[in-house]
Amino acid sequence: MSKTEKTPQQPAESKASADNPDARFHARPSQEVLEALEVELEKGLTEQTARARRKQYGLNRLKQAQRRGAWAILIDQFKSIVLLVLAVAGAIAFALGEWIEALAIAAVLLVNGIIGFVSEWRATRSMEALQKLGQARTRVRRDGREKEIPADALVPGDIVLIEGGDIVPADLRLIEANNLQVNEAALTGESVPVNKTVDALEGDPALAERTNLLFKGTTLTQGSGQGVVIATGMATELGQIAELAEGAEEQATPLEQRLDALGRRLAWITLLIAAAVAGVGLLAGQPVRIMIETAIALGVAAVPEGLPIVATLALARGMWLMAKRQALINRLAAVETLGATRVIFTDKTGTLTENRMCLRRVVTPTGDFDLEAGEASADDLALRQVMEVGVLCNNATLDNDTTDGEEALGDPTEVALLQGGARFNLTRRQLLERRPEAREVAFDTDVMMMATFHEVKGGGYQVAVKGAPKAVLEVCGSQADREDEKPLDEETRQEWLERSEALAGGGLRVLAIADKRTDSTNAEPYEKLRFLGLVGLLDPPAKGVREAIDACRSAGIRVVMVTGDQPATARAIGYQVGLTDDENAPAHHGSELKEPDQLSAEERRRLLETRIFARVNPEQKLHMVRLYQEQGETVAMTGDGVNDTPALKQADIGVAMGKRGTDAAREAADMVLKDDRFSSIVEAVRHGRIIFENIRMSVLFMLCTNVAEIIAVGTASAVGAPLPLRALQILYLNVVTDVFPALALGVGEGDERVMRRPPRDPKEPVLTRRHWLVIVGWGFFIAACVLSALTLALQWLGLPEPAGVTVSFLTLAFAKLWFVFNLRDRTSTPWRNAVVRNPFIWAAIGLCIPLLLLAVYLPGLAEVLSTEAPGLAGWGLIMAMSVVPFIVGQIILTVLRSRERRSGSERAEAVTG
Prior knowledge:
By secondary structure, the chain is an alpha+beta fold. The model is unreliable at 1-22, 245-252 and 905-913 (pLDDT under 50).
């Protein structure tokens, strides 16, 4: 154990650092705080100092809830009602002195526990590994350079750069605050955002009133700034709360609850059947021991041993496969819901497009410049003014002021402006040396603009503004001329709006650039501006997105673009990626999106038919999700900003962007896309469908064959015939021929046409009424084959009873193995389907056959299972009767496929449902 683990840091306001244990940072000027923590604002800590402090204070992590240990996971394997049935059967066998049966049942309980333990252990560790993949990162200044590092690498004294949407990574003393507001509800319970300042505070105010501090875990709702870390990990205020908090109990997902309910129902039904059969047999004069042995056999037959294991293993493997394909699942229930998704609301930038903005066009009052064609000249005054404002009104950074963006940090649009400026030798660093930034007004989705104030030599300030063309033009009173400026009348303003629409119609993202001079940093930034021009940035459609949208269309999934961009740009991109087949398709404005109960029937119809929405704000996204959910749709919604969190939480599947998404969005989402690609959403939906179908097939397989065991034993007991299966034989079959094939089905790659089917109803149970009818039907048919094999072995072949029972035992065993091939899709062929292509199926069969041969020919095991070699004739009978269900199943599938092809239908159901 490290020194930090033995003596964790103390809260920031009592013992903030080893050198200054009584610091009260909220009461001290920011410069004193920096001196106390031995750091310079412009340089930050050195990497060497950071390593030393990390060794002293430890990683910036809260103490994690104690992870489930091996013993806890093992004990949980024996809490299932399904296994209690086995335990009762074992106890009865033990009480009757049937030591072999009792020990065998105990062994099965242990084997089942080990299999469940291994599966859940791997699933638990998979979840922990996935959490590590999605660790938060933060921007800091070290060695005089801005860089992005893991949040847990922060140490006291680090200079952290923050902006709206970030989750505060540690306790900070603010050094700079630009229109900064923070939601501290997670810490103080106060739901109203708090305005933050940098001024020292007098006295000892309450935690909620320490306006110059930011606390770990709170969310920045607006503005930007920078602060110095004063506490990390458990020394933060959130850490102190975490110290007192009790761990929340993890709840089962809906799928797990359904499977558990299914197991309980099956167990109780079988216990009633066992009791009834035993009672009837006793009344009919059957020996007590035989009837008790029969009851034990029925109880054992009821238990689908693989049921608790299959779901865990399938979900865990599915999560890993999704992670490999760039989709991190935050909540296990999301895996199930994904397969039922009917509508996907997707952002444009970075999801449908490459998110690699590059500056292509600049339009000023004196000229139209195509940068790609090399028509621009740095000597043009109007062009230079536009580029300077675009570089100054900016929060992104370029390392070494390069133009390739390899070391860029920040919003892609702002990075593109910096790169565009670098082409004309206009770097932000050099411009700030001449015109230092005095104030920033962060981008606000309500006004759709951002502004920065810069000191000008000789006195006063230049206000640099960029934003949506319509918003900027509305607050401009003049426009730049060759030497001076001239009034901007309404007719000219309308002409600029039309030029903006024309640029956007070509797929460009358009921003307006403006500025003004003022005498004070307290001046209103958005009034009486001078319009400088328009910039057009290109973000090309992402590779493979058209194919992904086509896949959604085939799968019955509606894709709707929801963007804050202009309608013309949204329409152009929508046409390019295949959302619509009409390049003039309507792109509705976000203002049309109201609360569902405020919409008329005609408005609802029109909105539900629309595929492109532009100028949509986060609140309108929430209205859209609710509108579709009221129609009974399962909705997935993408988001990246802090204001997107309500819509992400409201959606059935919230999808956050891993690259450009804020911490708040990632926390609220069910799924995080590491690559921000739309195709990753579609791939995740495909896996969600496959996982659900795999689990359904596994359950169907186990229940069809277990019901056959119950019917065969119950029927033989009722008519006074020899039991076709002994209790130990049933145990052996359920462990060997149930678990391994069921697990193989659970991890299959699924049918290749899974995305050509409509989504399932999200309320649909794992097994529908039709599935239960099929289970009972196959149960009776397989049981009839087993009883027929026993009858023929005894009456036709004249085998002694132990050898005859061995025939019925092996008939059921091999029937189970062949029956797995009946679970293919009925639109597939016998030689080309998901089951045949599943290598785990062949591995399971390859493992089970030798184990069945050992049950007959291994001396010790054969004695325990009461088996005898059936001879060549017996083996012929076994193979003939065991293959009957397979042949009948394939005939049914072939007939159904012919009907499907004749009708032209592509519905996909297995022969079992």
